[in-house]
UniProtKB/TrEMBL annotation:
Polar residues biased stretches: 385-394, 442-466
Compositionally biased spans, kind Basic and acidic residues: 369-378, 519-529
GO MF entry, a single one: G protein-coupled receptor kinase activity
Annotated stretches, region: Disordered: 369-468, 489-529
Positions with a binding annotation for ATP: K53
Domain of life: Eukaryota
Organism this protein belongs to: Clonostachys rhizophaga
GO biological processes: G protein-coupled receptor signaling pathway; regulation of signal transduction
Record's compositionally biased regions (Low complexity): 407-432
Domain annotation AGC-kinase C-terminal: ranges: 276-367
CDD domains given in the database record: STKc_Yank1
Protein name: Uncharacterized protein
Length: 536
C-alpha cells in the first residue's frame, strides 16, 4: 500500500503519500476521511486527513480548507491536534496530524455516562485550548464532542478548524458558521459575535457530557434558534443527582449575555467554584492525571469507516500511489462554471502549500540561534520568560531528549505517536536533513497528586462524596448537602452500594459463565449511557 509501483521511496524529497504506510480508517469528514498512517522511515504513527479536491471545489469550500491548513501551521498546544505535514496530489489534499487513539468525545458519551470529575477535567483542558487559540486571534466556531479527540492517556485535544476564522480585535463576525445546535444566541441574533461564542459552545458540550443530551433540541432551524436565544435550558432531576456546583457552572457557561458568560475572562473560568479545585498551571503541563483513560484493549473508533472504504469507494486511497492522470486543461469554449472551477483548482495548487514540521522546527531553532549569536548583549531567558514570549519555541521544536533503550520518552507522554528506533534514524534518514524532534518531551512524566496541593482541603462529605473546601472559606458543596455528590472514582461508588446484586453492575453476577467477580468499573464512568437516570 502507498507504493504500488514498487520503486524505492525518496525520503529526501517533499513529503508525499508514498512516505506512509496506510492503516485503518478511523473517521469521516465532509470532504474525505481520516485514517491511521505510519512513516516508513521512522515508524512514527499519525492521523492522515485526506480531502477530495472535486468535492471541495463543488461546494466552493476551497478558502476554508486553505485557511485551516494555514492556521494549523501556526498553532501548537498540548490540547490541540497539531499539524505535522501537508501535501497534495492530483485528486486529494492531505493533512497529517497527531494521532489520537482514544477516539472522539462523541464516541464515548454516546456509550457511557461519566462522573462530574471526568467531565470537569475535559472542560478544563478544552478551556485551556480555547484560551490559547483566542490569544492567537482565532475563533474555532465548531466546538462540539465530534471535534474533541482523546489521546491514549485520556487528555482531550481540539481538532477540525475547517470553519475557524481569524479575528481582528475590536471587530465582530456575522456569518452563521458551525453546527446549529452549538451556536451562541448572539450568532443567531445576527448582530455580531466574537470569541465568547466559543465558550457558549463549550457550555453546550458541558451540558451534553453530563446529561447525554443537548440542552436545546428544536425540530427545525427556526425553532432551535428560538430556543437558543431564549437561553432557558432544562436541568432534569437525576439519580444520582448533579451537584449544585456543576449546575451553576453549566448555567454560567450558557449565559445568553456574552459579557457575563463564563469564559468572557480567563479568571471567570478558573475561579468558578466548580473548576477552582484544579491547578491550571499543572493541568496545562499535563502533570495532572486524567480521570478517564480510554481502553487500550479495544478500538475506540467506529468500525464501519473501514468497511465503507472497502465496499463503497470506487477507488480506495490505496490506489493513489499509482500514476494519476493530470487534470485536463481548460477548453477555449469553456463555460463560466468551468472557468470558475478551474480557478479554484489553481488556487488549491498554489495556496495549499507543503508543510513538514521537522523542517519548520529546524528553521525556527536555527533562526533563534542566529539571533542570539548576532546579539552580544543577549541574556538567556528564564523558562518563565520563554513561556510568555510569542517567539518561544514550542515543545515540539525543542532538542530531542536522550533516548532510553533505543526509544524516546514519549511513551509516558500524552501524545500517542510512537517513537522511531535509533537504528531507523541512523540508517534511513539521509545526511543533511534535520532529524524529526520527538513529540512533546518537555512535560514531566510524573503526575502530581491533587490531594497534596495547597489551597484547599479534601474531606468526605456527609453524603459520602468528596467535599472541597477552598481557603477555609466554605465549599461549593455546602449548598448541596441534600444531594449525593459523585465519588472520586468508580471503585468508591461500588463500595457505597455494597455487595448486593442490586448494584449498577449486579446483573453481571447472574450471567452464566461468570463465576469470578464482575469486571471493575472504569474510573470516571458511572455506567452505560443513561446511567444518570432522569426522575423528574
Amino acid at each position: 500500500m502507498g507504493n504500488g509501483q514498487g520503486k524505492p521511496v525518496d525520503f529526501t524529497g517533499d513529503v508525499s503519500l508514498n512516505h506512509f504506510r496506510l492503516l485503518r480508517v478511523v473517521g469521516r469528514g465532509a470532504f474525505g476521511k481520516v485514517r491511521i498512517v505510519e512513516r516508513r522511515d521512522t515508524n512514527l504513527s499519525f492521523a492522515l486527513k485526506y480531502i477530495r479536491k472535486d468535492e471541495v471545489v463543488r461546494s466552493e469550500s476551497v478558502r476554508n480548507i486553505i485557511r485551516e491548513r494555514r492556521m494549523l501551521e501556526h498553532v501548537n498546544h498540548p490540547f490541540i491536534c497539531n499539524l505535522r505535514y501537508s501535501f497534495q496530489d492530483i485528486e486529494y489534499m492531505y493533512l497529517v496530524v497527531d494521532l489520537m487513539t482514544g477516539g472522539d468525545l462523541r464516541f464515548h458519551i454516546s456509550r457511557k455516562t461519566f462522573t462530574e470529575e471526568a467531565v470537569r477535567f475535559w472542560i478544563a483542558e478544552l478551556g485551556c485550548a480555547l484560551r490559547y487559540i483566542h490569544g492567537q486571534n482565532i475563533i474555532h466556531r465548531d466546538v462540539k464532542p465530534d471535534n474533541v479527540l482523546l489521546d491514549a492517556d485520556g487528555h482531550v485535544h481540539l481538532t477540525d478548524f475547517n470553519v475557524a476564522s481569524d479575528i481582528i480585535p475590536g471587530k465582530v463576525l456575522t456569518s452563521k458558521s458551525g453546527t446549529l445546535a452549538y451556536l451562541a444566541p448572539e450568532v443567531y441574533a445576527g448582530k455580531g459575535y466574537d470569541v465568547r461564542a466559543d465558550w457558549w459552545s463549550l457550555g453546550v458540550l458541558f451540558y451534553e457530557c453530563i446529561y447525554n443530551k443537548r440542552p436545546f433540541e428544536g425540530n427545525s432551524e427556526k425553532s432551535l434558534g428560538e430556543q437558543i436565544q431564549s437561553a432557558n435550558p432544562k436541568y432534569p432531576v437525576t439519580q444520582p443527582p448533579v451537584s449544585l456546583g456543576c449546575l451553576y457552572a453549566i448555567g454560567a457557561a450558557l449565559d445568553p449575555v456574552p459579557s457575563k458568560r463564563m469564559g468572557h475572562t480567563w479568571e471567570s473560568f478558573i475561579n468558578n467554584d466548580f473548576f477552582r479545585v484544579l491547578d491550571f498551571d499543572l493541568l496545562e503541563q499535563k502533570r495532572i492525571e486524567p480521570v478517564f483513560v480510554p481502553s487500550s484493549d479495544k478500538t475506540n473508533f467506529d468500525a464501519t469507516y473501514d468497511l465503507e472504504e472497502l465496499l463503497l469507494e470506487e477507488a480506495p486511497l490505496e490506489a493513489r500511489a499509482r500514476r494519476q492522470k493530470p487534470r485536463e486543461r481548460l477548453k477555449e469554449d469553456a463555460t463560466e462554471k468551468e472557468i470558475k472551477e478551474d480557478n479554484l483548482y489553481r488556487t488549491i495548487e498554489t495556496d495549499f502549500r507543503p508543510f513538514d514540521y521537522t523542517i519548520a522546527a529546524y528553521k525556527k531553532i536555527t533562526e533563534a540561534s542566529r539571533r542570539i549569536s548576532d546579539d552580544p548583549q543577549h541574556e538567556p531567558a528564564s523558562p518563565e520568560q520563554g513561556e510568555q514570549s510569542g517567539q518561544a519555541l514550542t515543545t515540539d521544536e525543542a532538542a530531542p531528549a536522550p533516548a532510553m533503550n533505543g526509544q524516546s520518552h514519549d511513551q509516558s507522554q500524552s501524545s500517542t505517536v510512537s517513537s522511531p528506533t535509533a537504528a531507523s534514524e541512523s540508517t534511513q534518514r539521509p545526511a543533511g536533513r534535520p532529524v524529526p524532534p520527538p513529540l512533546p518531551t518537555a512535560y514531566q512524566t510524573e503526575y502530581v497528586s491533587r490531594s497534596s496541593r495547597t489551597g484547599g482541603n479534601r474531606v468526605t462529605s456527609p453524603t459520602g462524596g468528596v467535599q472541597v473546601t477552598l481557603d477555609g472559606g466554605g465549599s461549593w458543596s455546602e449548598l448541596a448537602r441534600q444531594d449525593a455528590t459523585l465519588p472520586t472514582d468508580a471503585n468508591a461508588a461500588g463500595e457505597a452500594k455494597g455487595e448486593g446484586s442490586s448494584g449498577m453492575f449486579g446483573f453481571l453476577r447472574s450471567k452464566k459463565g461468570r463465576n469470578n467477580s464482575p469486571r471493575p468499573k472504569e474510573r470516571g464512568v458511572l455506567g452505560k449511557e443513561g446511567a444518570r437516570i432522569v426522575i423528574g
